[in-house]
């Protein structure tokens, strides 16, 4: 079925049976993604006064989540998302509540790290699960719009989530942000789990146990490209924070990052409304190229006003690149392995962000904000090179499913 273009594609998507409720439930469950680590930092720092300790606890949570996400995605493909969501949200509530209690009681750092690891291991990649559900719910021609909506919602969450957790932690109680994460994850997970219309079909295993998403060359290419894009994004974050500090206005760092998200949100909405004639694998190369070109001017910013404008430009290709990657993943991953496939992309991107943040921080400390900006360009260049070199692998599609069949079989 041909893709439906124009901004009217979004209302048409949300008029699909079950689409509006799925989108709303996804927003609730997704909020903790942008709140959990910051809430942990704020609480540990408020109680112990140690930013170093807070960083260790938050990092332990993020790393364990990145390692566990593909495992949980694979499990969801084998036994169904519903069982995984209902089980993990219960474990997550216990683990995060234990972490909050341990922090409040002044427990030693190793115990905090253990509770943080347990929380991370019980935190599914909610955006990955949602993308797999959209693939089961809507027709093939509407899928690009659904992924664009997901990217817009992601950017909105990353705009509002940090603000919400900061307000809760400072105006209500230092632990209020993490308590809200427990509530959001529990309610969102249960609501999505019970949304039967979008439940991906569990494919029967063949004698070999079913082909894994990560065994597909095209998925591997996407993972490396996502890691490169993640490196760029992590280094850009450091670039803007370092620039704000060098200008003597450290508070502007958060403003620059928000403007980057604004650029991504707006571009993602437009990208999803256009019926692109280029194949998705070529769109991936085009969007990652624009992403790299948008990072170059950051190294030459001279004033906060200039950096504010460049921040919007730097964000323009973020959501489009992720939309193109998501659409490719849906076409490349073996049937019945979408949750795992999207989780691998999420983990690869998170690893890239962590590496980009670390490398960018070291370079900014020794060479200034512009050194971090050039590191971002380098990471993005890797994504462009891999996307271009991997075109043959990205063109190898599995057979296209019947539109909406997975949803209608529920």
TrEMBL record:
The answer to whether keyword Cytoplasm applies is: no
The organism's place on the tree of life at top rank? Bacteria
Q: Give the InterPro entries listed for this entry.
A: MFS, MFS_dom, MFS_trans_sf
Q: Where is the Major facilitator superfamily (MFS) profile domain?
A: 218-410
Q: Which GO terms describe its molecular function?
A: transmembrane transporter activity
**Cellular component, GO annotation:** plasma membrane
UniProt keyword annotations, A-Z: Membrane, Transmembrane, Transmembrane helix
User: What is the name listed in the Swiss-Prot or TrEMBL entry for this protein?
Assistant: MFS transporter
Q: What broad taxonomic lineage does this protein's source fall under? A: Bacteria, Bacillati, Actinomycetota, Actinomycetes, Pseudonocardiales
